[in-house]
Automatic annotation (TrEMBL):
Listed Gene3D superfamilies: predicted glycosyltransferase like domains
Protein name, UniProt field: PilZ domain-containing protein
InterPro entries: PilZ_domain
Superkingdom of origin: Bacteria
Single GO MF annotation: cyclic-di-GMP binding
Domain PilZ as annotated: residue spans: 5-124
Listed Pfam families: PilZ
Organism: Thermotomaculum hydrothermale
Length: 132
Protein backbone atom coordinates (compact mmCIF):
# COMPACT_ATOMS: atom_id res chain seq x y z
CA UNK A 1 0.00 0.00 0.00
CA UNK A 2 1.50 3.36 -1.03
CA UNK A 3 1.82 6.41 1.15
CA UNK A 4 -1.09 8.18 -0.55
CA UNK A 5 -3.39 5.22 0.04
CA UNK A 6 -2.89 5.38 3.82
CA UNK A 7 -4.40 8.84 4.13
CA UNK A 8 -7.80 9.16 5.75
CA UNK A 9 -8.57 12.57 4.27
CA UNK A 10 -8.28 13.88 0.74
CA UNK A 11 -5.54 16.50 0.33
CA UNK A 12 -6.36 19.70 -1.53
CA UNK A 13 -3.52 21.57 -3.26
CA UNK A 14 -3.77 25.04 -1.82
CA UNK A 15 -1.22 27.77 -1.32
CA UNK A 16 -1.05 30.21 1.54
CA UNK A 17 0.99 31.56 4.43
CA UNK A 18 1.19 30.01 7.87
CA UNK A 19 2.57 30.93 11.30
CA UNK A 20 3.96 28.11 13.41
CA UNK A 21 4.74 28.25 17.13
CA UNK A 22 6.70 25.23 18.45
CA UNK A 23 5.29 24.75 21.96
CA UNK A 24 8.55 23.26 23.30
CA UNK A 25 10.43 26.56 22.86
CA UNK A 26 9.67 28.59 25.98
CA UNK A 27 9.79 32.37 25.93
CA UNK A 28 9.86 32.69 22.15
CA UNK A 29 6.69 34.32 20.90
CA UNK A 30 8.04 34.95 17.38
CA UNK A 31 6.39 32.60 14.93
CA UNK A 32 8.20 30.51 12.40
CA UNK A 33 6.74 31.55 9.06
CA UNK A 34 6.08 29.23 6.16
CA UNK A 35 4.02 28.55 3.08
CA UNK A 36 1.54 25.73 2.97
CA UNK A 37 1.27 23.50 -0.09
CA UNK A 38 -1.70 21.29 0.62
CA UNK A 39 -4.21 20.68 3.34
CA UNK A 40 -6.87 18.22 4.45
CA UNK A 41 -9.22 17.85 7.41
CA UNK A 42 -6.48 15.91 9.17
CA UNK A 43 -3.26 17.70 8.34
CA UNK A 44 -1.21 20.21 6.39
CA UNK A 45 2.01 20.20 4.38
CA UNK A 46 4.13 23.34 4.47
CA UNK A 47 7.63 24.58 3.76
CA UNK A 48 9.72 26.67 6.15
CA UNK A 49 13.32 27.70 6.70
CA UNK A 50 13.94 25.91 10.00
CA UNK A 51 14.11 22.26 10.96
CA UNK A 52 11.42 21.19 13.41
CA UNK A 53 11.88 17.71 14.86
CA UNK A 54 9.44 14.84 14.37
CA UNK A 55 6.84 14.63 17.17
CA UNK A 56 7.17 18.35 18.01
CA UNK A 57 3.81 19.83 18.99
CA UNK A 58 2.99 23.10 17.21
CA UNK A 59 0.39 25.80 17.43
CA UNK A 60 -0.53 26.61 13.82
CA UNK A 61 -2.31 29.74 12.60
CA UNK A 62 -3.42 30.59 9.09
CA UNK A 63 -6.26 32.25 7.24
CA UNK A 64 -8.43 30.41 4.75
CA UNK A 65 -7.50 31.93 1.39
CA UNK A 66 -9.68 34.86 0.40
CA UNK A 67 -10.60 35.09 -3.26
CA UNK A 68 -13.26 37.73 -3.87
CA UNK A 69 -13.88 36.62 -7.45
CA UNK A 70 -14.71 33.11 -6.27
CA UNK A 71 -16.85 34.43 -3.44
CA UNK A 72 -18.85 36.46 -5.96
CA UNK A 73 -19.27 33.43 -8.23
CA UNK A 74 -19.88 30.84 -5.52
CA UNK A 75 -21.92 32.39 -2.72
CA UNK A 76 -21.17 29.41 -0.44
CA UNK A 77 -17.56 30.62 -0.11
CA UNK A 78 -18.60 33.94 1.41
CA UNK A 79 -19.13 32.42 4.86
CA UNK A 80 -15.78 30.63 5.10
CA UNK A 81 -13.07 32.53 3.20
CA UNK A 82 -10.74 34.70 5.22
CA UNK A 83 -11.41 32.93 8.53
CA UNK A 84 -8.47 32.54 10.89
CA UNK A 85 -7.82 28.91 11.80
CA UNK A 86 -5.90 27.94 14.97
CA UNK A 87 -4.83 24.32 15.35
CA UNK A 88 -2.56 22.18 17.48
CA UNK A 89 -0.60 19.74 15.38
CA UNK A 90 2.26 17.27 15.54
CA UNK A 91 5.17 17.02 13.10
CA UNK A 92 4.91 13.56 11.50
CA UNK A 93 7.09 14.09 8.43
CA UNK A 94 10.26 16.12 7.77
CA UNK A 95 12.05 16.42 4.42
CA UNK A 96 15.08 18.62 3.76
CA UNK A 97 14.67 20.44 0.45
CA UNK A 98 17.53 21.36 -1.91
CA UNK A 99 17.04 25.08 -1.30
CA UNK A 100 17.91 24.86 2.43
CA UNK A 101 14.23 24.76 3.39
CA UNK A 102 12.34 21.99 5.11
CA UNK A 103 9.01 20.45 4.20
CA UNK A 104 6.94 19.48 7.23
CA UNK A 105 3.92 17.22 7.34
CA UNK A 106 1.67 18.05 10.27
CA UNK A 107 -1.09 15.88 11.70
CA UNK A 108 -3.83 17.91 13.37
CA UNK A 109 -4.43 16.84 16.96
CA UNK A 110 -6.80 19.51 18.27
CA UNK A 111 -8.76 22.50 17.00
CA UNK A 112 -11.77 24.54 17.96
CA UNK A 113 -15.03 23.09 16.67
CA UNK A 114 -15.83 26.29 14.75
CA UNK A 115 -12.41 26.22 13.07
CA UNK A 116 -12.89 22.58 12.11
CA UNK A 117 -16.33 23.33 10.68
CA UNK A 118 -15.00 26.26 8.62
CA UNK A 119 -11.98 24.30 7.37
CA UNK A 120 -14.06 21.26 6.44
CA UNK A 121 -16.66 23.37 4.63
CA UNK A 122 -13.98 25.33 2.75
CA UNK A 123 -12.23 22.13 1.60
CA UNK A 124 -15.54 20.58 0.51
CA UNK A 125 -16.39 23.68 -1.53
CA UNK A 126 -12.96 23.83 -3.19
CA UNK A 127 -13.08 20.11 -4.00
CA UNK A 128 -16.68 20.23 -5.27
CA UNK A 129 -16.12 23.25 -7.49
CA UNK A 130 -12.66 22.20 -8.70
CA UNK A 131 -11.44 25.72 -8.19
CA UNK A 132 -8.53 27.56 -6.67
Amino acid sequence: MGYEEKRRHKRIDLKGYINIYPLAIKGNSNPLKGKFKNISEGGILFECSRKVNIDTILKIEFFLPNNKALAARYKEFTNVIGHKIVILGKVVRLIKKNNENFELGIQFINMYEGDFTNLKRFLELVDKNYVW
